[in-house]
Amino acid sequence: MVAVPLPGRRAQARYRAPRLAARRHCRSRQARPCVRANRGGKVIELGQYMRRFVLYRTQEEHSDDCEKFPYREIPGRVFLDTNIIDCLVKWPKCIFEMEGTPPDMEDKLQTDIESLMHVFHVGSRASWDLVASELTLKELAATQDAVLREELLDYGIGFVDLANNGNENKRYARGLARRLRGSNFLASLPDRNDRDLIAHAIAFQCDAFCTRDRRSIRRKRNSLRALPLKILTPAEWWQHIKPWAGLWC
User: Fold this and answer.
1) Which residue has the higher pLDDT, 183 or 10?
2) Distance CA 114, CA 122 (A)
């Protein structure tokens, strides 16, 4: 199992290979009862996680979600929008250590944080890849606060390293982004960076693009149905995983 480290200021080691670890279970395989996952020095029992959070109160609710979100549609490779990496770095204790969110937190941010917490804890034993692109680093580098900028870049570069896996992937992603930028596939997105990021996700063969951007990318996704990936918020990403969480916990 590969542990996902807790982002922290002045991290001593660069975060590399941010893979939500180990091998994928098939549908018929029984879950192992209690496996440990390390988060920044804190050991969390995944069995305790399942006892702490009641995911379903009735068998009917669970069966309905299994039908609505089939196992085969769980994204195996997810491109993280810049705002997702920003959220992971700003709220590490809530996401990686399951601490409660502040009572005055805005509802949508709270939902996103709680969803990412579930995804990362359940995913600590799954073989899902999380990736980003060099454009992500460019956007993170625009952060004004110098300390936060260093931490964002230090954390984000691991996702970029996993996606690139050699100069050939970089060139392919850039070339595809240039071709898609002027095509009808992404024409409904007004922001050029959004178009390029989604193009990079396609080039890196991602199954989903996870974003907190509800005003632009998510609002326009109905006009992007021809894309070979899903555009998901953190809550929607968790919805796909939730019915099958017991396989990894």
Assistant:
1) 183
2) 12
* Structure tokens belonging to residue 79: 């491109």
Q: Which of 207-211, 221-225, 239-243 has the lowest mean pLDDT?
A: 221-225
How far apart are alpha carbons 77 and 65 in whole angstroms?
A: 21
Separation CA 75–CA 59 (nearest Å): 24
In a domain, 72, yes or no: yes
Q: Residue 38 pairs with which residues in a beta bridge?
A: 43
Give me the number of domains the chain comprises.
Answer: 1
| Residues spanned by the domain of 79 | 36-247
Rounded CA gap, 3 and 24, in Å? 15
Q: What is the DSSP string of 172-185?
A: HHHHHHHHHHTSST
From the CB of residue 109, how many other CB atoms can be counted at a distance below 10 Å? 15
Place of tokens 């991602």: 206
Domain assignment present for 81 = yes
pLDDT of 84 reads 97
Predicted pLDDT of residue 173: 73
Taking CA atoms, 206 is separated from 44, 103, 109, 173, in Å, by 29, 35, 24, 12
Answer yes or no: is 201 within a domain: yes
128 strand-pairing partners: 20
What is the four-CA torsion angle of 206, 207, 211, 216, rounded to 10 degrees?
Answer: 100
**Tokens 């390293």 belong to residue:** 161
Q: Is residue 8 part of a domain?
A: no
Quick one: 150 exposed, middle or buried, by C-beta within 10 A (0-12, 13-18, 19+)? middle
